[in-house]
Specification:
2 domains; binds magnesium ion; 15 helices; binds guanosine-5'-triphosphate; Rossmann fold
Amino acid sequence: MISMTVQKILNGDRRTAARLIRDIDDGIPGTREILKAIHRHTGKAYVIGITGSPGVGKSTLVDQMIHGLRRSGKTVGVLAIDPTSPFSGGAILGDRIRMQRHSLDDGVFIRSLATRGQFGGLTQSTRSAIDVLDAMGKDYIIVETVGVGQDEVDIARSADTTVIVVVPGMGDHIQAIKAGIFEVGDIFVINKSDRPDAEKTLHDLRALFDIARKKLTGEGWEPPILMAEAASNRGIAELLDEIEKHRKSRKTLSHETVIHRKQAVARDELIDMIKCRLFQEALDHITSSPEFKIYLDCVTEGTKDPYSACDELLSAKLCFIGDEVNRKPDLQEYLVAQK
Ligand SMILES: Nc1nc2c(ncn2[C@@H]2O[C@H](COP(=O)(O)OP(=O)(O)OP(=O)(O)O)[C@@H](O)[C@H]2O)c(=O)[nH]1
Ligand SMILES: [Mg+2]
């Protein structure tokens, strides 16, 4: 069963891939085995992250990028990460509509991820979905995220090239964009440059860069600032060129830098995965125990405060948490005595 699914993914079967990505998004446990099996078929795709505040034109830009990449014969996978779900069906709908002209093209596969993950696993589910598109054989994978939180910074960090999109007239907003996002930006695009103040935004961004230059030029790549008008396909060819340049510049990095980066990405990924598993399994372990029920009753009846209940449950069920004082050797006995 697993091997059939894996084979279908490797053959680029869209329905199987769509189902798997949906299951990843829903946190279905069975996906783990499939992901394990496809992982060794990944690592060939080039991952481009596109991030920026809501409405700056990311999806319009991605749509044009798909068009450009397809013209040069490349296959493209797109993941649109919906920031606020499950309530904002609108964003997903908007993304889909804006990229709809590619829906009949076999070389393009577009999916959305909506769930922030019950256990904070958006970054992880995004990585897994990237693996699926990679295993399908897509040459480029574009990940659209709304640059607001730590998840987006983490996702951007695992992309090969990260493009930050801003629009004119954002002034203070540019300053307010999380510093973290700025640090992970490899290319900056001022979209909607048909609007007034585009030049001023360019000026502001350059000034901001001068301050942060040390950080930004740490590895010999100076992030360019491009002007674009995604809605009328202006500046897209230049953006794709810069992405290629950045890709080439990565190839000239020293062996140590490459290993160092790979290790940093692998470390983030592994820690994230451990975090999710720990949280999920520890919580299940505690909440399914008879002690949990007893403590819950005590808290409900008011015979125990929730703070102590939490401390004692953690010490008892996860022996490595909590101090000696709180650790009760025989919880059952203790609880009976308390009642
Ligand atoms: N004037 C102008 N409008 C644009 C340009 N590019 C995109 N837009 C418009 O900006 C609006 C938002 O575009 P989207 O591509 O959906 O923006 P987004 O960043 O993907 O939005 P979210 O995914 O909701 O965060 C749409 O109405 C686009 O037509 C541009 O270059 N100039
Ligand atoms: Mg969008």
